[in-house]
Amino acid sequence: MNDFVGTQLRGWDAATFRTASGDPGMRSTVVALTILESAPDWARLRARMERLTLCVPTLRMRPLYGVMGLSAPRLAADPDFDLSVHLRRYRIPEDGGWQDLLDDARRMSLTDFDPNRPLWEAALVEGLPGGTAAFLLKLHHSIADGQATVMMGLTLFEFGPDSDPHEAPAPPPPPAEDVSLREVSAANMVDTLRLLGGAAGSAVRGLADLARGTLTDPVRTWGAALNTVTSIGRVTALPDGPMSPVLVGRGTTYSFAVFSLPFEGIRATAKAGGMNVNDAFLAAVARGMDAYHRRHGVVVEELRINVPISLRGDAGDRSGQASNAVSIARFPLSIAGLTPTEHMEQAHALVERWRDEPAIRMADPLADISWFVPVPMLAQAARASDLTTSNVPGPPLTLFLAGVRVSAVYPLVATIGAAVNVTMVTYDGTAYIGISADDRAVQDLADLTEDLRGGFALVTGSAPADTPVPAGPGG
To answer: Which residues 6+ apart lie within 8 Å of 206 measured at CB?
Structure first.
């Protein structure tokens, strides 16, 4: 078989690509918005990006498609890879500002990728207030989750303004050649047969284990089997619809907002309650969403929320440098009538309960099965969620890009069916919050942002900054 046909997307990655391609409302992009102290040297930035694509080969890989799209695409090195196609620079108009930058990030996020080139693009934006600049990096969610994006950043960024003479050299470009549709389809067939053979082998081993267990310890064996089956049912259950009477309507566009606050406030709040940072983050979001609904004259007891559960470090984790290594927990979250401490305790209990679900660690096999589920059905299930949240730990120290200090890093993630996405990335002592809101579900994004800011201020005791470049440890 031709060695240049690459590797087929599997599991969660393949399911993400399929739904994003099959429904414009399920567009699946991650945009990392990095604010820089000043404009970096363009040649040095290009060199850093070239090095990144060599250290993270996925960024040089294009999708290859078999006959009639019956299988997931393959990722293979692009023989025509050209950095200038993916990387550009421009200036904001002289009368422009931060909102213009967010508008540009929105347009970038809502623009589909070229389906025949590597699934990323980047832009250096100059002329921002105070002589600052920004770097926008857009990735398809099928090749990277939030943590993988941070890991890419650690390859791109440096720890000081000067180049590190001891930095390991980048590997050579991956070999690449043109391949025919016939070769791609044949490789897909081989992979499918191998997958089916592996599934059959696993089934035989599972039945053999079940038979042995029935003879030696039937109660425990059948109890564990029943627990796994019921767990799969809970994880794959299709919800009836959104729980919010306010966040109604779903479209194909969304808008962004951002704010930041000292990370120490979140960390101290969590520690004082015996909880973790994610618990305090979810509590703050819950308080903000409660305030937003009350603004609209309703009290909503619960919202349906999606929370990514990281599988990095688990047995079988395949996330070495850049990939998705998550499963999604979906559950009702109480937002009304609780104290901040009760919000944290609730969030902690719910996430831990879902983390212990046996089916959570079956994300890839279940995603493979979803290939037989029509995309409209998958999209309908995604649109039944009111809210998606994600908390991504970032580097705690100052970083530089092409010799220029990184002042802030904001995560801007597509809503992917939910009405609202709230993602937090921590960097250099500051928590950066990115909000994405479906334009049909939220027509007053400024109000929603203000209520979320209030939720974080109430829970953490830290006032969010008024501009994208915060003062304090991270700015």
So the answer is: none
352 phi and psi angles, rounded to 5 deg: -65, -40
In the block, which residue shows the tokens 């009538």?
337
State the Cα–Cα distance between residues 160 and 409, nearest whole angstrom. 17
The torsion region of residue 358 among left (phi > 0), alpha (psi -120 to 50) and beta comes to alpha
Count of residues making up the chain? 475
Write out pLDDT tens, residues 313-353.
Answer: 554 444 444 455 567 888 999 999 999 999 999 999 999 88
Residue 96 to residues 68, 128, 260, 466: CA-CA distances in angstroms?
46, 7, 21, 17
pLDDT in tens, 7-57: 888 887 888 888 888 888 899 999 999 999 999 999 999 999 999 999 999
Complete domains list, the chain, with CATH:
3-167 (3.30.559.10), 254-393+417-460 (3.30.559.30)
| 173-201 as b/e: b if 16+ CB within 10 A | ebebeebeeebbbbbbeebeeeeeeeeee
The three state secondary structure string of the chain is CCHHHCEECCHHHHHHHHHHHHCHHHCCEEEEEEEECCCCCHHHHHHHHHHHHHHCHHHHEEEECCHHHCCCCEEEECCCCCHHHHEEEEECCCCCCHHHHHHHHHHHHHCCCCCCCCCEEEEEEECCHHHCEEEEEEEECCCCCHHHHHHHHHHHCECCCCCCCCCCCCCCCCCCCCCCHHHHHHHHHHHHHHHHHHHHHHHHHHHHHHHHHHHHCHHHHHHHHHHHHHHHHHHHCCCCCCCCCCCCCCCCCEEEEEEEEEHHHHHHHHHHCCCCHHHHHHHHHHHHHHHHHHHCCCCCCEEEEEEEEECCCCCCCCCCCCCCCEEEEEEEEECCCCCHHHHHHHHHHHHHHHHCCHHHHHHHHHHHHHHHCCHHHHHHHHCCCCEEEEEECCCCCCCEECCEEEEEEEEEECCCCCCEEEEEEEECCEEEEEEEEECCCCCCHHHHHHHHHHHHHHHHCCCCCCCCCCCCCCC
Which residues are 334's β-sheet partners?
Answer: 302
Q: How far apart are CA 8 and CA 17, in angstroms?
A: 12
Q: How many CB atoms lie within 10 A of CB 245?
A: 10
Residue ranges, the chain, pLDDT below 50: 315-322, 472-475
Q: How many angstroms separate the CA atoms of 156 and 180, rounded?
A: 34
